[in-house]
Write a structure and sequence with these properties.
This protein is of the alpha/beta class and 178 residues long. It is built from six helices and four strands; from the N terminus they run H-E-H-E-E-H-H-E-H-H. The chain has one domain. 43% of the residues lie in helices and 7% in strands.
Length: 178
């Protein structure tokens, strides 16, 4: 096993796709865990002495062979709760930005194309993160801005709404979040 310290946004951008295998538990974070992550991120963003926050490890294996021109998807073994939550937060942030770019690299278009989708791909390959079971259709609908499916994952939908609300309460002062 090889461990490497990486900034989460860099990790998301440089990875082709994350797949949560069917044997992993479904997304289950509640508002309490989302609130803690939110508080930690905003605190780090406002602090001059602690501008980073350790979100934990993400353990994965490559699904197939990578080549120079094609990266294999990564099967997430551990860290899917955090990865999913960060994806929901990024989608809420990109929707809230409009035409603004509070910090270089944080525009709606850049967030969408770097961290949430693979804009040149189609079907399953379009999404950076594929969940297992009911969470997947809910996450896809959120990222595509579509109506939630009838069997929507409550945790995915409610946590996305939580982040939208928290971002709205910042009244456009999003620099510390970015």
């Amino acid at each position: 096993m090889k461990a490497k310290e990486t900034m989460v946004l860099e990790f998301l951008q440089n990875s082709s796709q994350f797949i949560i295998p069917i044997y992993q538990r479904t997304y289950s974070w509640e508002q309490e865990q989302c609130q803690q992550l939110w508080d930690d991120i905003v605190r780090a963003g406002r602090s001059e002495s602690a501008s980073v926050h350790f979100v934990g490890s993400i353990v994965y294996v490559a699904d197939g062979l990578s080549t120079v021109s094609l990266q294999a998807p990564l099967l997430v073994i551990d860290g899917q709760q955090r990865l999913t939550t960060i994806t929901l937060l990024l989608e809420a942030l990109q929707r809230s930005l409009g035409e603004s770019e509070p910090i270089e690299g944080f525009s709606a278009e850049k967030i969408k194309s770097r961290y949430l989708t693979r804009h040149l791909e189609k079907g399953d390959k379009f999404f950076k993160l594929l969940l297992s079971q009911t969470g997947d259709s809910t996450l896809r609908a959120i990222i595509q801005g579509r109506e939630l499916p009838p069997e929507a994952s409550l945790h995915v939908a409610e946590n996305f709404e939580f982040f939208l609300s928290e971002i709205s309460s910042m009244k456009g002062n999003l620099e510390s979040l970015c």
